[in-house]
Design goal:
- The complex is a heterodimer of chains A (137) and B (147).
- Chain A is an alpha+beta fold and 137 residues long.
- Chain A is built from three helices and six strands; from the N terminus they run βαααβββββ.
- In chain A, 24% of the residues lie in helices and 35% in strands.
- Chain A is elongated and about 50 Å long.
- Helices cover 20% and strands 33% of the residues of chain B.
- In chain B, a hairpin with a 4-residue loop joins strand 4 (118-129) and strand 5.
- Classes of the chains: A alpha+beta (137), B alpha+beta (147).
- Strand 2 (72-78) of chain A pairs antiparallel with strand 2 of chain B.
């Protein structure tokens, strides 16, 4: 990884079933992530993905780019726009791309992540700091 | 009703330990579609220098969100959770969470603001092992929209 490198796009499909599964695995059972009735009742267009699910997919993209699942030392994002997930078999798709912002002499790289769904950015100022090379045992 | 500003700076007692299990990590990795063997297999994790199966980067939220409920659901705070959206999230790791960790969380309220109908709260959670080894610090910023 070198400063300025653009990291290859990774696209992940998100369906209602994925949200139900994530709710169970994470313990976040907020009904706006599985009930259209509750979601529209609070002014949302319908069921939306957990922000933390979208962030988890971003993390999956980052560890994929780095090739080391334990390399992330800092990871942060804002959630400017929800990911609406329709109640059908195809769901929606979130596409992640990355830019290596900097590589320090300490072997750490900052990766800026862009997440796009339906032509709009769904994460804001998403960035990860990763340790390059094998971690110290 | 604006949030109780006196919550700013408040720190809660450590939570009871959450024991991280191999199957919980696998379940979480499956749920996010993460394919890495180090989330499932001890030998694969060991090959990367980890003493046990490691968890994906955002797994810590399983522990920190549970701990943060004592803050956001505190009736004295006055947060209407039905209006809450997740605004920001940050993790700062000392090392990856791994199977066998017994994690305690100490939650602090970093910031509370109520401005033009928007209530905002930032909760910082220090996640450490039962033995006191720091593992990860987690920040969550929640915003409640006005009526």
């Amino acid at each position: 990884m070198r400063a300025g490198d653009r990291l290859p796009e990774q696209a992940f499909r998100v369906t209602r079933a994925d949200l139900v599964r994530y709710a169970g695995a994470s313990g976040d059972f907020n009904p706006i992530h599985w009930s259209d009735r509750v979601a529209t009742g609070v002014g949302l267009p319908g069921v939306i993905a957990h922000g933390m699910y979208t962030m988890a997919l971003a993390g999956r993209a980052v560890t994929g780019w780095v090739g080391d699942p334990g390399a992330v030392v800092e990871f942060s994002t804002r959630f400017p726009r929800p990911v609406a997930v329709p109640d059908d078999d195809t769901g929606t798709e979130v596409t992640f791309s990355g830019l290596v912002r900097s590589v320090g002499e300490d072997g750490r790289a900052q990766v800026d992540v862009t997440a796009v769904c339906g032509g709009e950015k769904v994460l804001g100022q998403a960035r990860a700091v990763v340790r390059l090379g094998k971690p110290d045992a | 009703m604006p949030l109780d500003q006196s919550f700013a700076g408040r720190t809660y007692p450590p939570t009871e330990p959450y024991e991280v299990g191999v199957e919980k990590i696998r379940e979480f990795a499956d749920a996010i579609g993460a394919p890495e063997a180090a989330y499932r297999d001890r030998a694969a994790a060991a090959a990367l220098g980890h003493p046990d199966v490691i968890a994906p980067p955002t797994f810590a939220v399983v522990v920190s969100m549970r701990a943060g409920e004592q803050v956001v659901f505190d009736p004295a705070l006055g947060l209407d959770y039905s209006r809450v959206v997740h605004a920001e999230q940050r993790f700062s790791y000392t090392r990856p969470v791994r199977a066998g960790d017994r994690l305690r969380c100490v939650c602090s309220v970093e910031e509370v603001t109520s401005r033009s109908g928007l209530d905002m709260i930032t909760v910082r959670t220090e996640v450490a092992t039962d033995a006191g080894e720091p593992v990860v610090t987690v920040w969550a910023k929640l915003v409640a929209r006005g009526e």
